[in-house]
Amino acid sequence: MYKLDWRLSKNADATRRYRKRHPDRLKISRKRWYQKKKKEDPDYFRQILRERRKENPDKFRQYALTARNKLRKEVFAAYGNKCTCCGETTQEFLTIDHVYGGGKKHRQDFNLLGANLYYWLRENNYPQKEFQILCANCNMAKARYGGCPHKNSNTDHQGSLWKEKDWYSTV
User: Fold this and answer.
1) Per-residue DSSP letters for 113-170?
2) What are the CA-CA distances from residue 84 to residues 32, 116, 117, 137, 143 (Å)?
3) Distance of alpha carbon 27 from alpha carbon 11, whole angstroms
4) What's the pTM value of the predicted model, to 2 decimals?
5) CA separation (Å) from 112 to 4, 78, 102, 105, 159?
6) Separation of alpha carbons 143 and 135, rounded Å
């Protein structure tokens, strides 16, 4: 009913012209209206969102993927966009590492599965002392062997770091 009112009014042409000239003002007013209505009746908007998601699952999946990738880039930019151990910069290989360990417990305590860790980092202003970026290889070596071969200067890539621990027992 709301949308029909202005179309049926005597000033419909003036309304159309105003809307065409001031899209930025309309965007702001729609956002305010949406936020107000969302506070008043959140279940109504959840229901609308569910229906739209059912109608357009591919569109929502693509939107979620885009938002997640944007957030990932934002988080990695905050931590330097490269592995702190070897300097790897390929985004697909980079991971977030808990500097002092305890990542499993931290993820369980705060339910930080998937992109939730990225949201948590952003909400907590990207704590620099507790987190760092490592590539997948350095992160795995740190977890399994207690350190990375890049950091251990007396170890060649065939060397003692790998022989100290029987890696078959950890698989």
Assistant:
1) -TTHHHHHHHHTT--TTTEEEEEHHHHHHHHHHSS-TTT-TT--TTSHHHHHS-GGGG
2) 43, 23, 19, 12, 15
3) 21
4) 0.64
5) 45, 19, 13, 10, 36
6) 12
How far, rounded to the nearest angstrom, does the alpha carbon of residue 142 sit from its chain's CA centroid?
24
| Cβ atoms of residues 131 and 98 within 8 Å | yes
**Sign for the pseudo-dihedral over CA of 156, 159, 165, 167:** positive
SS3 111: coil
Assigned token pair, 48? 């609308």
Each residue of 102-133: pLDDT tens digit?
A: 888 888 888 888 888 999 999 999 999 999 99
Rounded to a whole number of angstroms, the CA Rg of the chain reads 25
